[in-house]
């Protein structure tokens, strides 16, 4: 009898351990899978979305603009560059971004700098989704206007006039901008920035930071 009980206990312990291992495995797998599904590396799946440069007021997920955006809008427009570690498209666009802004940054870190570009202050923010604070990483879903859910993603936040109120006004672009060459991509980014600067200059006098 004692031998049978001992065998039953052994089987129970082994079974429990196996089930616990499976439970932990599936939890970890689901967490990793969720992260992979949430934000895609566009170039990794050979997806290069058609970019439509259109400024809009409504955020992509209907949430308020983050405080870090509103605070920096008092100085000038913002350019936000979203990346992640495993991102071939980011490796293509990194040198172009650095060229346009005449800056250098570590691709695996959060980076922030206000630069003087095209006769205007513009705040450049690099947000690596794998290494940046949650407020920064979550903002991708605020500005993913075409609901692409992938990186690289480029956002210009400026100011626009909406029914007698000046509000944040933004556009987003993705991947390698559906363009083939370094110079074409550089020119497209420059055009986005210039549009943002022009809109900012037209509307900055009426902007109040509490207006979202």
Brief sketch in words of this structure:
With 212 residues, the protein is α/β, with parallel strands linked by helices.
Task: Explain the overall architecture.
- The structure is a single chain.
- The protein is globular, with a radius of gyration of 23 Å.
- The protein has 212 residues and is an alpha/beta fold.
- It is built from five helices and seven strands, in the order αβαβαββαβββα.
What labels would you give this structure?
212 residues; single chain; disordered N terminus; 5-stranded mixed beta sheet; Glutaredoxin; 42% helix; 2 domains; alpha/beta
What is the level-2 CATH architecture name of the largest domain? 3-Layer(aba) Sandwich
- The CATH superfamily of the largest domain appears as Glutaredoxin
Distance between the termini: 74 Å
Question: Mind summarizing the main beta sheet?
Answer: 5 strands, mixed
What's the topology here?
Blueprint: H1 2-38, E1 40-41, H2 67-72, E2 78-83, H3 88-101, E3 111-117, E4 120-128, H4 134-143, E5 150-151, E6 153-162, E7 165-174, H5 182-203
Parallel strand pairs: 1-5, 2-4
Antiparallel strand pairs: 2-6, 3-4, 6-7
């Amino acid at each position: 009898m004692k031998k049978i009980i001992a065998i039953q206990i052994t089987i129970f312990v082994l079974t429990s351990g196996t089930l616990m291992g499976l439970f932990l495995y599936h939890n970890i797998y689901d967490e990793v899978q969720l992260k992979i599904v949430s934000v895609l590396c566009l170039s990794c799946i050979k997806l290069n979305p058609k970019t439509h440069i259109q400024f809009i007021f409504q955020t992509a997920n209907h949430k308020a603009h983050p405080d870090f955006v509103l605070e920096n809008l008092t100085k000038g427009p913002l350019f936000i560059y979203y990346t992640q570690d495993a991102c071939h498209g980011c490796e293509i666009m990194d040198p172009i971004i650095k060229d346009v802004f005449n800056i250098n940054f570590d691709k695996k870190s959060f980076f922030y700098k206000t630069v003087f570009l095209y006769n205007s202050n513009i705040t450049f923010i690099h947000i690596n989704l794998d290494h940046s604070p949650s407020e920064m990483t979550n903002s991708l879903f605020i500005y993913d206007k075409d609901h692409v859910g992938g990186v690289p993603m480029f956002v210009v936040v400026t100011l626009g006039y909406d029914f007698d109120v000046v509000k944040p006004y933004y556009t987003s672009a993705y991947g390698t901008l559906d363009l083939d060459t370094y110079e074409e991509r550089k020119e497209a980014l420059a055009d986005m920035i210039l549009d943002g600067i022009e809109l900012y200059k037209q509307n900055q006098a009426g902007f109040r930071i509490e207006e979202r």
